[in-house]
Amino acid sequence: MIFAIPLAWLQLIRERIRLLVAIAGIAFAVVLMLMQFGFRDALFKAAVRFHESLNTDIVLISPQSTALIAMKSFPRRRLFQAAGFEGVESISPLYLSFGLWRNPIDKSTRQLMVIGVDPMAMALQVSDTPGWQNALKLSDHVLFDAQSRAEFGPIPELYRSGKPVITEVSGRRIQVAGLFTMGANFGADGNLLTSDLNFLRMFPERNPGLIDVGLVRIKPGVDAKVLARRMGATLGDDVLVMTREDFAEFERRYWENSTSIGFIFSLGALMGFIVGSVIVYQILYTDVTDHLAEYATLKAMGYRDVFFYGVVMQESLILSCLGYLPGFVVSFGLYTVIANATSLPVWMTVERATLVFTLTVLMCTLSGAIAMRRVQAADPADIF
């Protein structure tokens, strides 16, 4: 009887309404877990977009800096000192600040991050506009992040249509000379790239001798970690030296450990797991109770508990698969909607889908194991 319909499946479809309720409950738990994990991963991915776009090997920042949204300046001369180390190919300063962008359509204002770089230093690998370095050499010309939130106005559409896009940033008149791609994150809804000279024109209160990030390119064959350690030991205490990868990890650790956001998303996923476990337990417990007389009869006939474990575990696995599939489809659609609405990197990954499927199976099997205690306690003499 290899192709016989499993007893577990027959028991599940006997009460179709109950089965649909169970599938809906598990799907809800799957959606909850996938969304929470998706938000958390999007937070970390978005937080290091800027770091990953830097065209550098070693980064210098102030020791007082905690994250990209809270950078502190340090003396530019430290960067010049770093240029004197053997193995350094080039250096480049980078300025960061937040300015108020005026929407050229409805005239509303919204804060965005302004990045000031040396146009000829190729500090960032983000531009979609050919020859953007020359464009930024012009006074008050900027590149607009095409993946910024829609509240800044239809800037990419206006620019691609050939119309001049002229507006204000922190009260200074500027013109969009091109587009680049970076994307919003939890700290900045949009980004603006311009030259260091234009940056200082937008923020005249800034001291040109104080920079926010120092970028150091090294020669081929030089170990970035070793050179970064040598720089850190030689330069003063007013500068922190690290590789680009460590700079990205520095940012990720801030959002994971120094804010409550990462904890909240992890707690939300845990709540989804608990809610799903309770729903599956209730369904399986009710199913076991309804068939208690049959189980007791089989026990009287000599069937051992391992047989009943097998049946309930099969029911658990079937429920986990049936509940996971609609939850996955709904979450996939929600990821697309959220990514389009927020410009955050929210998308499905194989690792996350596998993790949540494993948790779903674990959730259902644990609930099934708890529900089995009802069968273990059943005594045929008490039932009949």
Describe the structure.
The protein is an alpha+beta fold and 384 residues long. It contains 14 helices and 11 strands. The protein has helices at residues 7-14, 16-47, 49-53, 77-82, 132-136, 155-160, 196-202, 224-234, 244-257, 261-290, 292-300, 305-342, 350-376, 380-383, and strands at residues 58-61, 74-75, 88-102, 109-117, 141-145, 166-169, 172-180, 191-195, 210-211, 213-218, 240-243. Strands 6-7-5-8-4-3-10-1-11 form a 9-stranded mixed β-sheet. β3 and β4 (109-117) form a beta hairpin. α2 (16-47) crosses α12. It is elongated, with a radius of gyration of 29 Å.
Question: How large is the share of residues in beta strands?
Answer: 15-25%
The H-and-E topology, N to C, reads as HHHEEHEEHEHEEEHEEHEHHHHHH
Report the principal-axis shape: elongated
Radius of gyration: 29 Å
State the end-to-end distance. 31 Å
Uncertain runs with pLDDT below 50, 5 residues or more?
none
The helix-and-strand class reads: alpha+beta
Q: What spatial order of strands do you see in the largest sheet?
A: 6-7-5-8-4-3-10-1-11
Name the average pLDDT: 86
Give the number of helices. Answer: 14
Sheet bearing the most strands, described? 9 strands, mixed
Q: How much helix, percentage-wise, in residues? A: 40-55%
Count of strand segments: 11
